[in-house]
Amino acid sequence: MFNKEIQFTADGSHTLFIPEMDEHYHSVNGAIQESMHVFIDAGLKQCKKEKIQVLELGLGTGLNAFLSCIEADKTGIEIYYTGLEKYPLPVYLAQKLNYQEQFPEDKNSIYLKIHQSEWNFPVKITQNFTLEKIITDFSDYDFPGKYDVVYYDAFAPDKQTSVWTQEIFNKLYTGMESGGILTTYCAKGSVRRMMEEAGLDVERIPGPPGKRQMLRAVKKRPARHTFP
Predict the structure, then answer these.
(1) Sequence-distant (≥ 6) Cβ neighbours of residue 170 within 8 angstroms
(2) What would the pLDDT profile of 118-137 be if each residue is shown by its tens digit?
(3) Full DSSP string of 183-223
(4) Residue 145 falls within a domain, yes or no?
(5) In CATH, what number is assigned to the domain containing residue 203?
(6) Is residue 152 part of a domain?
(7) Could you read off the pLDDT of 42-73 as tens digits, one per residue?
(8) Does residue 87 belong to any structural domain of this protein?
(9) Structural domain of residue 50, as residue ranges?
(10) The pTM is what?
(11) What are the percentages of helix, strand and coil residues in the chain, rounded to 5?
(12) Which residues touch 222 (CB under 8 Å, ≥6 apart)?
């Protein structure tokens, strides 16, 4: 889709930069730090189930999936992870990123396995982590699962307005389990209002390094949206 440049972030981990969009895949203040703070600590770790359905909107570099798999293996929880991505990252480019180098050697093979696994089909990455990567546009997806945790990791709203819409948040709400948690690095008021309109209870919480706030939302009310 676009040219992608590999860049270092402040914590030593890589991110990708798209010059045509003037957009990074992760925070330049630390890619791994951001993913851990926004999605693992504020999202996944807040779900107390032993079997967790995770949905990621914007699989991107696979960093969030990689960190979630490590967490599953560390804690013994079982994760079924669905990752949506319209423009999959080529395996050769994923091989150049240094995420696996930031973790013990026994985890190194997981990251590459995530990228080499088949698309549109569930693949068991480790004993505790099953991954289903789906090539799709968010607006075309019906969210058929019942998700306990949602990572909303699309490009920023001012870069890709089409993936931050009321319709998508309404569908997400219906697809989430009661008590389900949605986290995103984004803290824009317009995004918060769309989440609230969908029926989610939304709070602003401290963001990762370099970002003052982020959003976390919980499904507490009965679903009020129906779809054909």
Answers:
(1) 197, 198, 225
(2) 999 999 999 999 999 999 99
(3) EES---HHHHHHHHHHT-EEEEEE-STT-SEEEEEE--SPP
(4) yes
(5) 3.40.50.150
(6) yes
(7) 999 999 999 999 999 999 999 999 999 999 99
(8) yes
(9) 31-218
(10) 0.95
(11) 30, 30, 40
(12) none
